[in-house]
Write a sequence for this structure.
């Protein structure tokens, strides 16, 4: 091959250095030509829209060629057979805005395009964008306005609702998936949301989050309760988790709800029930003047971080001024004191419930903008989308594994091999 031929071949082939299908020279030529003609790169009628139109129409022509068995202007056989029958105009909403394309037709009406199916008005990227915006807490009206303002795309609220409804099937499958036989830690909490059922009322959405034996986060499920948070409904949740395969949990961290330790003991008799430290601290501040919050926080820290119990020192210092705080901790002492018997590696990850608090914060952010939901399913759908978008880059998974690795070794020792035995 001559030098000139090699050069021509290098231009004709994809850019091997970058792996791009379109070479950098061709991209540069297109951009330069668009600028010379005063053509915008984005927006309706822009360069990207024109390229999208050409690519989609070219793909559709390839599909109808495969369907008919012959190319354009070729004879389809001596007996005639099915042939092309013109085009029909169609506008599809894409991530760069609305694009009008010409969809080929066949005489017999049997052509079923795949890349832009019949009655399809949006490319999949738009659906993914709507789901992402919904997971971040935008209402259907806000999503519609955003798409119109940024992309010039007209997407109605009903269409957005239809798009988000597609996740329901996946949500049901996720909610009923099999679970691991054992978890080192299971965090239990509930989020209050407003649901209109005749009248607007607060309803709890129960969240169960677990740490796996590999140190990763696993949200086990979401459930909508029928009233205030109650231990009876938590028993229903825990029983469902057991039926889905969770035979054992080493520790269950929860708030101080009366009756919840009994519900845990009924389902997982060997589990250690630990009162959530963050809930205790938060409730303590409710009984104290704001000007004393920092002092109380410093006084309580040795109680849940010191190698030995330091409660008497705190009680003597603050008992006369804030007796309600002392009663709060003493009433929760039976579920708090087990925490003090564990190694520092375990206490470090258990004393802070950032694991579930960060999830709750994301959920609250998503539901806050909605005000209230028309149905239970609408509320559950919103929370599910928020949960599924927690770690889009995977960086959180790596941080979890790194943070929990020392604690899991301590769990294996403290709980006498229950993690390994149950797993195998």
């Amino acid at each position: 091959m001559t030098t000139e031929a090699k050069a021509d071949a290098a231009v004709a082939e994809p850019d091997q250095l970058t792996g791009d299908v379109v070479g950098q020279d061709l991209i540069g030529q297109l951009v330069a030509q668009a600028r010379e003609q005063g053509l915008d790169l984005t927006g309706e009628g822009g360069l990207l829209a024109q390229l999208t139109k050409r690519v989609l129409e070219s793909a559709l022509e390839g599909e109808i060629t495969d369907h008919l068995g012959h190319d354009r202007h070729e004879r389809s056989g001596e007996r005639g057979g099915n042939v092309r029958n013109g085009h029909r105009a169609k506008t599809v909403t894409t991530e760069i805005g609305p694009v009008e394309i010409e969809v080929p037709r066949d005489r017999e009406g049997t052509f079923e395009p795949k890349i832009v199916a019949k009655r399809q008005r949006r490319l999949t990227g738009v659906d993914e964008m709507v789901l992402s915006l919904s997971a971040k807490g935008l209402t259907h009206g806000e999503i519609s306005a955003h798409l119109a303002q940024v992309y010039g795309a007209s997407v109605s609220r009903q269409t957005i609702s239809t798009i988000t409804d597609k996740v329901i099937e996946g949500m049901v499958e996720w909610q009923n998936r099999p679970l691991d036989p054992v978890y080192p830690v299971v965090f239990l909490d509930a989020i209050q949301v407003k649901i209109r059922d005749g009248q607007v009322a607060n309803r709890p959405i129960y969240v169960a989050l677990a740490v796996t034996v590999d140190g990763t986060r696993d949200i086990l499920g979401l459930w909508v309760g029928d009233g205030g948070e109650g231990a009876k409904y938590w028993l229903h949740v825990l029983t469902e988790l057991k039926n889905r395969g969770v035979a054992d949990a080493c520790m269950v961290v929860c708030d101080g709800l009366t009756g919840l330790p009994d519900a845990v003991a009924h389902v997982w008799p060997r589990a250690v029930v630990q009162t959530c430290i963050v809930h205790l601290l938060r409730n303590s501040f409710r009984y104290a003047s704001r000007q004393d919050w920092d002092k109380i926080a410093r006084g309580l820290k040795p109680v849940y971080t010191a190698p030995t119990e330091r409660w008497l020192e705190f009680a003597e210092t603050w008992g006369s001024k804030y007796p309600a705080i002392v009663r709060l901790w003493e009433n929760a002492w039976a579920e708090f004191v087990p925490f003090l018997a564990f190694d520092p590696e375990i206490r470090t990850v258990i004393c802070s419930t950032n694991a579930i608090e960060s999830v709750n914060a994301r959920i609250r952010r998503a539901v806050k903008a909605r005000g209230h939901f028309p149905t239970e399913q609408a509320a559950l759908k919103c929370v599910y989308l928020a949960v599924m978008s927690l770690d889009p880059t995977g960086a959180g998974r790596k941080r979890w594994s790194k943070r929990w690795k020392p604690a899991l070794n301590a769990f294996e020792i403290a709980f006498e091999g229950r993690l390994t035995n149950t797993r195998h």
